[in-house]
From TrEMBL:
Record bears the keyword Membrane: yes
Membrane-spanning parts: 12-36, 151-173, 179-198, 205-226
This protein's name: Elongation factor-1 alpha
Keywords of this entry: Membrane, Transmembrane, Transmembrane helix
Organism (species): Methylomagnum ishizawai
Amino acid sequence: MPLNLSNLGFSIKMLFSGYLVVIAIGYGVAVMQVLFTHGMADGKFGLSIEDIVYSYYGNRSGSVLESKLNGSMKNNAPDSERFKIIQWVRDGGDAKVYDKEIKPIIELRCIMCHNSEAAGLPDFTQFEHIHQRAQSDQGATFASLARVSHIHLFGIAFIFMFVGLIFALASGVPGKLKGAAIVMPYVFLLLDITSWWLTKLNPNFALLVILGGGGMAMAFVFMWVVSMYEMWILPGKLPFPDRRNALTRS
């Protein structure tokens, strides 16, 4: 009898299922993280084209600091203090005004996270770092894009390699559809990563970011559902001899 998901031994099914469940939870947490970071770039919850543009191309009519205060950092300070910082930015970011009026707010609201010990976050104990972000918002830097791109390319490729390996044992999916489902996450991953760089150069490519991420998600859900169905539900619908073989393999 050919080896497939429905006639795997119980231990192997538990191994595969445990992996798929943990990966699904991780995928859901990753979506939440996107919603709370990129999804707040325009100050409104939920991912939109504007969020993508602001995250990668930037809001070049304003500064990074202003965009963050109206977006993902909006809930970290009362409106009166946020508006005071924004007005300081729009007035040119004078150092003397900063020391007198803005620095106490920064120390109270921001330094707890933005300090020299916080990896990946700008150090707001240094005026130069704050002043730099008071300039025109140019979106993601090429250095940050390179760093995040190589992490996603390696990490997500490994995830889909194992998900695809499990799905490859499905018996109820036509060969061409199975092959397409296995390769599509890699196609959409490359589209997603490439669209970050293209959107950095031109905001008209922002839609490709959503298409790339959405395509990966759909491929993942399809392979996940089919794999779990064939491991745990399909064996109960098999003719008795096949069902007995599926249940007795170990």
